[in-house]
Task: structure prediction
Amino acid sequence: MLTFLGGAIADKVDQKRLLLYLQLGQGLLLAFLATLCVTDKIEVWHILAIAFSLGSLGAFEQPARQALFPTLVDRSALTSAVALNSTVHPGTRIIGPVLAGVLLASISGATHSAPIAASAAFYLAAAGHVVWALFLHFVHTPPVRRRRSSDLFQDMAAGVSFIRRNHVFGFLISMTYFNNFFALSAFTLFPAFAKDILHVGPSGLGLLYTAIGIGNLIGVLITANLGNFERRGWLILGGTVIEAGFLVLFAVSSWFAASLVLLGLAGIGSSIFNVSAQSTLQVLVPDDFRGRVMGIWGLTHSTFQPLGQMQMGTMAALFSPPFAVILGAGMVIAFAIATTRNQRIRELGIASTSQAPLETAEAGSS
Result:
């Protein structure tokens, strides 16, 4: 729920200043963790406390960042902007572990000290947050007029009411919740697939995650090139079906090379859905509700995906990992097929709803 609270705060304060403070706070926490490592004073409770603090700050950072960056680009270029922003996660999934591994191996080999190597990685991450904040300081952000109440919880209730009145937002968020709970949660079973089904060990497990990351990146580039695709509803539903369909095929595959290809294709579908849904949401939501709407959308990662991972693990324990993945992906496909009966969703498009933000803003503020 901290993400939703962070969204309500983002709608009330200067988002750029809020992001600056949050980035510096995360940098300080990582620097403190690095110092504990290099002085060999780190304990388990330190790691837990710092991880909790980083997660809490991240819950406030996500809606503020999502609410800020659409104000920096023209609305017609928002799909490409969302796509570019979406390359961060799959890109770091591919490059980040490699760089961290090289850094840890080289420093550990030179110093013969694992704590020093780990502290160097954490210091570098802390420096990244400081550099991020420094660049943000020089970014010009246009003023955003908002209708603010003095009661934060009243603002949160107004955000929920706004989404309930505007069914398109409810659909986009619900579809994202459903996808994260039943489809993306399958990634938590990759270790079981690598060990017991594909028999490839730790190196093969890393390739499974890399395949998804590459697919995600390709899907982002495809969606960015589509621009303001008119049939946005079909693009959202189609991306979901592609992702879930290839996850079903992955679940029944016992050939490692084929599994990598299938995961890459599933990653493409996942990005097509996520970028299309998020860009549509960003285009339609009014500025004065953007933080709260994106805060509720952000609960998919902070709440629904972990819950989905728990149910996926439970189903895998009761039956088998392939059965759990097939069941979850089948639920997503069934939801998408059922949604095609809704004409408003089928005809959802950026251009046809270009006036929606003004109308919904007035409705939501009345």
In short: Residues 194 and 208 are 8 Å apart (CA to CA).
